[in-house]
Known about the structure:
Rossmann fold, single chain, two-stranded parallel ribbon, binds NADP nicotinamide-adenine-dinucleotide phosphate, 9 strands, 49% helix, alpha/beta, seven-stranded parallel β-sheet
Amino acid sequence: MSNSDLQEAMETEKGVAVVTGASSGIGKIYADRLAARGYDLMLVARRGDRLQAVADELKQNYEIRVETVIADLGDPDDLQRLAERIGNDENVTMLVNNAGIAVAAPTVRTSSEDIERLISINNTALARLSLAVLPGFAARNHGTLINIGSVQSFYSRSASTTYSGTKAFVMLFTSGLQQEFAATGVRIQLVLPAGTATEIWELAGVDPKIMNPSMIMSAEDCVDAALAGLDLGEAVTLPSLEDEQLWAEFDALREKMFHAMQTNVPASRYSIAR
Ligand SMILES: NC(=O)c1ccc[n+]([C@@H]2O[C@H](COP(=O)([O-])OP(=O)(O)OC[C@H]3O[C@@H](n4cnc5c(N)ncnc54)[C@H](OP(=O)(O)O)[C@@H]3O)[C@@H](O)[C@H]2O)c1
């Protein structure tokens, strides 16, 4: 086998990684790092010019195939088309559900259109695309799903109430999927980044000048840590959490609470005379 044949065989072996929201920020870095790992790519976002620029650069830097798909994940027709497309493509071996939006406002100051947009992109699209690829992954007993949640998956802030709610959905939805597919060869990773330097903040209406740089990670560090977590076999990766025992304790407490509530007797503090 010549070097180029060997290279092509290695690339084909990895298959295609679909990255949503690859036109900027965390998704753009995932595209780069997965290209470096030899994946062919399907890059999804609305801004076709940005996607094309990312694709051109990656094709120049790596010997891979890159396809761009212009889709608005908040549009039911676009979402349906993409779900069918990736669900029917046996070459798809990885999906990074990264596309997301934020609105930095208390719910009383968030329009109902914004609430619906947050839920449709952060939740409906993520769930639909997850469910599009998982049957194929399960049938082939191979494939990786990466869902991007947030530190706000487990901590709600009044400055971003609905965003936190959508990210809580990502955490619990992904956690349930991990249990459903635990006995298979399908890998499902939940990534929970904290503040990361991307466009999302300004788009959400936050003035970058008020942000403390010591609390904001680069998108490169965030993705490199997340992929290191994937390589370590982690189900949940918190790129900026130094003390991993904190997550273990949090997780154990959730479980303890769940089991402690499985009784048909009201708690004694609620006992009422009948
Ligand atoms: N940055 C942070 O501090 C942080 C922290 C925790 C979690 N996260 C999560 O990380 C993920 C990536 O965000 P980011 O920080 O990298 O923000 P970003 O730079 O704004 O990137 C968001 C990406 O999502 C795409 N997108 C947005 N709306 C879309 C739609 N309707 N249809 C298709 N694609 C859409 C955008 O592309 P187009 O505009 O071209 O469509 C863009 O590529 C999100 O899920 C976010 O919630 C971010």
